[in-house]
Amino acid sequence: MIELKNITKTFRKKNRDFTALADVSLSVEKGKIFGVIGASGAGKSTLIRCVNLLEKPTSGMVVVDGQDMLSLSAGQLAEARRQIGMIFQHFNLLSSRTVFDNIALPLELSNTPKAEINKRVTDLLTLVGLQDKQHDYPSSLSGGQKQRVAIARTLANNPKVLLCDEATSALDPETTGSILKLLKDINRRMDITILLITHEMHVVKSICDEVAVISNGKLIEQGTVADIFSHPKTDLTKNFIASALDIELPEDFKERLTDAPAPGKHPLLKLEFSGHSVNDPVLSETARVFGIDCNIISARMEYAGSVKFGVMLIEVYSNTDDVEKVITFFESKLIKTQILGYV
Ligand SMILES: Nc1ncnc2c1ncn2[C@@H]1O[C@H](COP(=O)(O)OP(=O)(O)OP(=O)(O)O)[C@@H](O)[C@H]1O
């Protein structure tokens, strides 16, 4: 449905050429959700804006639903863009129009008959769960409600593709979850292909089928979410995954945590499981082999396909010498292990 082939984009900055995208190629199959993740300035916005030619690539090819976008006339491009919806971090609603009228706008612009507009907008309001807000103005809505209006508005034209430019970055975690669920629902029910950009791996983990990691304008890794999560190759990808899995030490432990060992305190270890880790019952083996008990303080284990990955914080009931043996044992199972301190 979306194909970017060898896209390069250079900007002229202070009389010098700056390469924002370098030879980027990606392909999104119909009906899939594809995420592009990267840090600030990596080139994510430039990349997604190349799909509907809000940004014209310096070289390369953009094909959407079989159409070579760069070969279209202005009229054909306007028509093609109607098939490509886009939502933004800051919603871009018209403050002088009600919720209903914001959603109706694209239909008015395409001269849709009034009765049809009423029916379509009412259906869309139901789809995004905002029937009771139709007469309200954007200023009285929460961020999540504003994004629902923006989603309904972009769906009014029945697009085949939805581009999401950091669509949940301005929202709190709970609202983010509900918007991601809505996007997944739209993808499934309406068979809309979604390309999203984000700097948050949990967004990718929640709804994407495939992911590409962008750094300095280059795609440095791409594959299915299961593959990338279970076998990340680059440090950047590993860091993004770690941020999606990060777990907090409970307050009580934070207060008691010291850097140095002390009588009566136990080492607190952080174990990181990746797709490379051996899937053995390591905690019970530790107890059996070394006679050392472990207490799980906090854990977050996830599965990508059949591969387990995640983070676990454990308290080890042993003296300092013994803990080195335990760490060596975990490392032999390819579980990355670190002493966080003593509690
Ligand atoms: N119109 C422009 N003119 C000059 N440079 C630009 C232009 N647009 C983007 N850039 C540069 O291209 C690089 C990539 O920008 P882009 O906005 O695509 O990054 P991003 O990954 O979306 O970042 P963020 O998450 O902070 O929005 C940046 O260094 C930016 O300064």
CATH architecture of the largest domain: 3-Layer(aba) Sandwich
What does the largest sheet look like? Answer: 6 strands, mixed
Question: Hey, roughly how much beta strand do the residues contain?
Answer: 25-35%
Domain count: 2
Looking at the structure, the CATH topology of the largest domain is Rossmann fold
Low-confidence runs: none
Q: Order of strands side by side in the largest beta sheet?
A: 6-7-8-3-9-10
The level of helicity is 25-40%
Query: Helix/strand/pairing class, anyone?
Result: alpha/beta
Q: State mean pLDDT (0 to 100 scale).
A: 93
Radius of gyration: 25 Å
CATH class annotation of the largest domain: Alpha Beta
- Reading the helices and strands in chain order gives EEEHEEHEHHHEHEHEEHHHEHEEHE
Provide a count of the helices.
Answer: 12
Shape: elongated
What's the number of extended β-strand segments?
14
The CATH homology group name of the largest domain: P-loop containing nucleotide triphosphate hydrolases
First-residue to last-residue Cα separation: 54 Å
Associated small molecules: adenosine-5'-triphosphate
In short:
The chain is α/β, with parallel strands linked by helices and 343 residues long. The chain is built from twelve helices and 14 strands.
List the helices and strands and how they pair.
Elements: E1 2-13, E2 16-28, E3 33-37, H1 44-51, E4 59-64, E5 67-68, H2 74-82, E6 84-88, H3 99-109, H4 114-127, H5 143-155, E7 161-165, H6 173-190, E8 193-198, H7 201-207, E9 210-215, E10 218-224, H8 225-230, H9 235-245, H10 251-256, E11 267-273, H11 282-290, E12 293-304, E13 307-317, H12 320-332, E14 336-342
Parallel strand pairs: 3-8, 3-9, 6-7, 7-8
Antiparallel strand pairs: 1-2, 1-4, 4-5, 9-10, 11-13, 11-14, 12-13
Bound molecules: adenosine-5'-triphosphate (ATP).
